[in-house]
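S., here's the first fold you wanted:
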Amino acid sequence: MLLAIDAGNTNVVFALVEGRDIRARWRIATDPRRTADEYAVWLNQLLMLEGFALADISAVIIATVVPRALHNLQVLASKYFKVEPLIAGQPPVDWGIELDVAEPASVGADRVVNVIAAHHLYSGDLIVIDFGTATTYDVVDYQGTYKGGIIAPGINLSLDALVAAAAKLPKIAITAPESRSVIGRTTEEQMHIGVFWGYVAMMEGLVARIRSQIGRPAKVISTGGLAVLFDEHSDIFDAIAPDLTIQGLALLHERSLNR
């Protein structure tokens, strides 16, 4: 089985993939200091809880936007799984799509993996929104060419910055306001409105501008932890794909076997 690893700025997601099926997934806080041995102990326990063992893993593929985390993940693959891991964005892994941007090498591996999966799963022009530490908007046309996108602060990052900069504002949870009114009567209500509905307005406004620039109908595919929450309060999403990055990594691994 394939172990697909998505190392983001906030969490590292490990997923056990058999063919196209995701058999199990786990996440741990990103810490570049975490050693291969620590990963192995943690993974071994989780694998056993799901009825698997370290020996069941025969291949590893990694996508990371945290360069300092890569070495220990590579050691994990070579020491405990006895395989040389594939690294998304590095030879011999071929993206298989054109990156029609000014600096292709600077595009985050997770973003490219997302659009690869989205183009495989959905037809036409696509806007892929990934809710992570940053919220990214990526555009892939109907031919599968990556055209670029937008990077915006993630909603948690925006909230943390607001609370850190304003001494009297309390920390609040990222939830939808209880009322749909946009005139808050308490400090916390006003913060909820500003953070939540402000973020929804930003998403809807950016998607409208992107669609206008594309000039053709474009589906919006969302992924990331907050996708479901926002989907309940906006009609801009055509599909929710929580495992998009893992699906993209599985596709890259499959293509590498067929080269």
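And the second, which I think is the more interesting of the pair:
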Amino acid sequence: MSASSASTPPAPGRHLPALLIIAAGCFIAMITFGPRSVFGLFLVPMSRDFGWGRDVFGLAVAIQNLLWGLGSPFAGAIADRFGTVRVLCAGALVYGLGLVLMAYSGTPAGLQLTAGVLVGFGLSAASFNLVLAAFGKLLPDRLKSLGFGAATAAGSFGQFLFPPLTTGLIEAVGWQETLIIFGASLLLVMPFSLALATRGAVRSAGTAAAPQQSVAAALSEAFRHPSYVLLVLGFFTCGFQLAFVTVHMPAFLVDRGMDLKVGAVTLALIGLFNMVGSIGAGYLTNRMSRKWLLAWIYAGRGVAIAAFVLMPVSPWSCYLFGAAMGLLWLSTVPPTSSLVMLMFGTRYMAMLYGFAFFSHQVGGFLGVYLGGQLYVTLGSYDVVWWLSVALSFASAAINLPIREEAVRRPLAAQA
């Protein structure tokens, strides 16, 4: 036994059954993604009560998306170094505090601080990004892609569960009390995070990660690798579309004469069908080219969005759109995270996937922000819808040159 292995005891999570690890990670993904996915349902009541334009709420959520992405690489680096549990617990506390204080944010600055800064940084340390990285370290190789798909699907189940729950709570107790309830529910993350303890976890012998590689060397290697850069750039579109639809879809449908519940049902259908899409993508990730899988997903989104914009808006067209987008919603995550692990191994997976996710969230910032700003300026969301279509096909093309292989290192770096 080497000195390093003797001095670092195996992480507790390594001794738990794989299914228990997956179940705990899936619960965390669900409980953290759920409240964040229904922010659009608070746009109308908060804007009405405080006399805001949609640009005010849109800017706050845009800040949230940007800081969620900005904090993810740092949260991932801390989790890689000190373990997942501490990061998840701290993130859940900050996220929950942001939701509770958001209920009392009567000014645009207060909303930007709570819904934007606190929730954004909280999400960066308490979301399925860290769950995926923990799965990469704790699960056997044969279950990793399935675990990625299951965690992504669990986040989708949160998106399916929370819209009807949110509308019901808003009608029963009010939007402020609903935010407080959601904030308190995040405390449940803390006990479940214990199953994902990764400090000292033994890395798979077959991964490409060099055990002695420094953080700086890992970052330099990643951003000099063309395939990683292409993967990061393509992920921008995913964030742009998800954030725009999540936040502005309910208000878009209200403008078209639909009841707010139609928007809630549409978001719920996205979450429901994304459970199928995410698990299916996790299954296909090990059975076909990952880059082609991503290209087909992005191209499919472009077709679905274009068809929705061109069709007359009705409840059934909304529900059909929700089902189609749901199949493609977070199905990008299993092949993207799997490619990061394939290229660089699991040693710095949380950090490197965090940088890919930062690109995703820059897209989310622009999707939410442009949605609000262009609506105020032009009185419609048409430009943003068609920009989403164009970005879909651009990302489909960007992923095709990716090389699906481990990065090549000098032998001395792997010694």
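Why I say that: The two ends are 17 Å apart (CA to CA). The chain is about 80% helix and 0% strand.

Talk tomorrow,
H.
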